[in-house]
Amino acid sequence: MRTQVVIIGAGPAGLLLGQLLARAGIETVILERASSEYVLGRVRAGVLEQGAVRLLDEAGAASRLHREGLPHDGFSLAFDGRDHRIDLFGLTGSRVTVYGQTEVTRDLMEARDAISIYEAANVQPQDFDGENPFVTYEKDGVTHRIDCDFIAGCDGFHGVSRKSVPQDAIREFERVYPFGWLGLLADVPPVSHELIYANHPRGFALCSMRSATRSRYYVQCTLEDRVEAWSDDRFWDELRRRLPVAHAEALVTGPSFEKSIAPLRSFVAEPMRFGRLFLAGDAAHIVPPTGAKGLNLAASDVHYLSDALREFYTEKSMAGIDAYSARALARVWKAVRFSWSMTTMLHRFPDGGAFGQRIQEAELDYLIHSRAAATALAENYVGLPY
Description:
By secondary structure, the protein is an alpha+beta fold. The chain has helices at about 10-25, 35-40, 50-60, 65-70, 90, 100-110, 160-165, 230-240, 245-250, 295-315, 320-345, 355-370, 370-380, and strands spanning about 5-10, 30, 45-50, 70, 75-80, 80-85, 95-100, 115, 120-125, 135-140, 140-145, 150-155, 170-185, 195-200, 205-210, 215-220, 255-270, 275, 275-280, 285. The protein has a domain at about 5-70 and about 95-175 and about 265-345: 3-Layer(bba) Sandwich (FAD/NAD(P)-binding domain), CATH 3.50.50. Strands 6-5-14-15-16-13-17-20 form an eight-stranded mixed sheet. The longest helix has 28 residues, at about 320-345.
């Protein structure tokens, strides 16, 4: 088989890239090691920047998002027992949309205009340092080969794409945080119509949602914590302790249908292009979810990469391809900085001590009393321009 672009990974990044390229008349094949059911079962972030929404519009996969997504014009910082609203729209003229990643993935699957091959085992990108790359994979015990012009690695942090790059050709930057997030999903109405980020002596908490009837809540936990040690009752009790009284009293609880612990890390791999292999999304970078940037960064990578590939096929120009890594990384590092800043400001660090706590308090106080500081926060939260 031959195609123009092979995309490894059928998460949102791979599906969005494939859809944008297909609509531009560029042939693609998407290879995914897992089943489509498994991919749809992943529970991930759900706060979309306007840039990501525009890309989904361009991909022809945003009609349900516009019907069911929840536009948010602000969010709350809760500390010292009080709520302090950050007026995103008033400060920037932009808003975000709450819409679950699972729903984005489903919409892209349903809109898919090209070939997707699921349960493709032992996927291997080959010869991407030359002009004739190809990808091999196994399906039903048979080895297949796809020749192509380019390979896009959208297969996540643990995928094969980045691991296929020679170690001396790539540089990795990482910060592992000394805590995790214990998350719970329940079919209960959200405690607030906007997100609440809470800084509390017992640790960080986040009140989020997937819809008007499905809530997503998190509490900071240790890396040694285990899900089995947290009953639903224990989780709800701990969440109440970390929220202002009005929210704690309004909290509607119910049985969880998903509970998990996620460690937090910042990670960036440079560059994001190796000959005719590109990295995009989690294959190239990971951010803590505090700033709601993971899915949005994947979308911005896809924006730069799809533009570069369209330019190559329509104008026979390598300019966009040559600039892809630098363009993507410039935005990636700003989002990494913002996510690090939010994480540092809102969490309790084991070695922070009294000094660290006073710094957090000063920063939070500055944010709510300085329009300039609040505007900088809001600009980053709604998404910097592509």
